[in-house]
Design brief:
3 helices; 5 strands
């Protein structure tokens, strides 16, 4: 819920669909297994997996790269919705329809 609040505070309109079969959702949208996390979203055709910062989503929508989506694998401390007094460095990764990944940013 905190990640949703983070997106809403950044101006995104969010519709939440709670499911007990998140693995099926990730498979449906082509999220590579090594990038899975606890949230899957679709924003203007891009798949957003995990605690991706809102400004990264805004950058993605501005740049419109030829990728399937972006992900923050796992639940890293210090990522949006996972605030922590001891934040960990985490990477935002891109992925394409073939499962190829690359680094899009780090925090």
């Amino acid at each position: 819920k905190k990640w949703v609040e983070h997106l809403q505070a950044a101006g995104f309109r969010v519709t939440v669909h709670d499911t007990s079969t998140l693995a099926g959702v990730m498979e449906r949208y082509g999220v590579p297994r090594k990038l899975t996390a606890c949230h899957t979203a679709v924003v203007d055709g891009y798949v957003i997996e995990g605690h991706v910062p809102a400004d990264v989503i805004q950058r993605l929508l501005k740049e419109r790269p030829g990728i399937a989506g972006v992900a923050v694998p796992g639940m890293p401390a210090g990522s949006p919705g996972m605030e922590s007094e001891t934040p960990a460095r985490f990477y935002i990764l891109t992925f394409d329809k073939n499962g190829t990944t690359s680094v899009y940013g780090a925090r």
